[in-house]
Amino acid sequence: MNLRILPPEEMIDAIVSIPISKSICNRLLVINALTPNAQPVDPVADCDDSRVLAQVLQALQNGATEVNTGNAGTATRFASAFIAANSSLGDKEITLECSERMRQRPIGPLVEALRSLGAKIEYLEEDGFPPLRITPQQLVGGEIEIDATISSQFISALMMVAPTMTNGLTIRLVGEAASRPYINMTAQLICRAGIDAEFERYTITIPHGTYQPADQTIEADWSAASYWYELAAIAAGFITIRDLQLPSLQGDSRCAEFFEMLGVTTSEPDDDDFDEPVNGLAISPSPEQFSRFEVDLSENPDLAQTFAVTCAMLGIPFHLRGLSTLRIKETDRLEAMRSQLDKFGLIVEIRNNSELVWNGERHPIFTIPVIETFGDHRMAMAFAPTAIFVPGIIILNAEVVEKSYPDYWQQLQNVGFQLDEVVLSDIAADTEIDPAALNPNQDNEPARNSAFPIG
């Protein structure tokens, strides 16, 4: 499905709903599956990652000897540890299959850590990558070292199965932890389930024990909220996001702090503005804006695309650091962002395989941007709001939002955007730029004017 997007005709003043946090949900699914007499997690986050993980865990508990995690990276990593350390699954070999893209995403550090604890895991194709053949058993545990700069999901996977190990587990982190807030989240959820998990700077200690049924309340997802912050920034709109909360278990809640630099404030909703009280947070435009946006996103890499596009639309030069893990996401997000921002005339530089830099350099553009999503949900959602400045932008394979935010396109329509499905063969002849179409003078003309160079 390819979508042409046109902006609202009036100023945005809306209430929106976002998914529950898939990061919290995925961790609760694993912890719950290891908890005797636990009630099922309900609801499960409405996204591919969580649906796949829930289905895989249920199939394993029902005796399956082959499961398929598809393109779900979280499900692949969490399920691998769950199988390897779960003797209740029986003394049998279990095959974990996955998509072609997942076969290119490394899992070696997690496998080697589990093997060092006694796990029986074989690579079925290339060493270091799924698919895998795993024989479940109870692991002795003890102490391991792991490279902390790799995906935090490897560390979280080990943490969640640590209580099943005879001697518990101590994890020594080598280097600064990537996405540290996700490790903190895992530790807090383990504690909530009755196990005393401790996380100091370089050491995680989790004793042997039995999980207890616990509160399964799941917060609204801050990563999803970031796209509405983006829209508030570039459209000068007023948006209330249901069920979003501060403080939060989620590291991406720093989104609110970072967007203050880009002219968006966060507050409690004013009940006088609604027929009935609304639980959530209200975001609104502010004239306060930094002239340059420089942040380290090593703890919040999923926000990188949102900030890069927001800055591009506002004409604010940026330097985003700490993005080394973006090379091995659904796509190479660094190159994907560089190439697609180029379609808006921005000359963006990738530095040190971990930084995106734009110092204001531009080149002319001659056609309406047609955005490649590369199978990445965050590419689609980050670029959709650019229709405010470039009406008629086209998002290819827009269905990728199913991975984390299936209702995203409907929510955009609800706040006034027009979405029209277009056929790929018709796109090339229909994207020549009309200079007058950029930044049109309409009722909701953005307060900030980002001028695009027209060839």
Give a quick rundown of the structure.
The protein is an alpha/beta fold.
What is the secondary structure topology, with strand pairs?
Layout: E1 2-6, E2 13-16, H1 22-33, H2 48-61, E3 66-68, H3 73-84, E4 94-97, H4 108-116, E5 120-123, E6 132-135, E7 142-147, H5 152-161, E8 169-174, H6 180-192, E9 198-199, E10 203-206, H7 222-235, E11 238-242, H8 255-260, E12 264-267, E13 280-285, E14 293-296, H9 304-314, E15 318-321, H10 333-342, E16 349-351, E17 355-358, E18 370-371, H11 377-383, E19 393-395, H12 408-414, E20 418-422, H13 424-427
Describe the structure.
- The protein is globular, with a radius of gyration of 23 Å.
- The model is unreliable at 434-455 (pLDDT under 50).
- It has 455 residues and is of the alpha/beta class.
- The strands form 5 sheets. A 4-stranded mixed sheet has the order 18-19-1-20. It has a 4-stranded mixed sheet with strand order 2-11-13-12. It has a 4-stranded mixed sheet with strand order 3-4-6-5, with helices on one face.
- The chain folds into 2 domains: 2-18 and 220-437, Enolpyruvate transferase domain (UDP-n-acetylglucosamine1-carboxyvinyl-transferase, Chain, Alpha-beta prism), CATH 3.65.10.10; 22-206, UDP-n-acetylglucosamine1-carboxyvinyl-transferase, Chain, CATH 3.65.10.10.
- It is 28% helix and 18% strand.
- Helix 1 crosses helix 6 (180-192), helix 2 (48-61) packs parallel to helix 3 (73-84) and helix 4 runs parallel beside helix 5 (152-161).
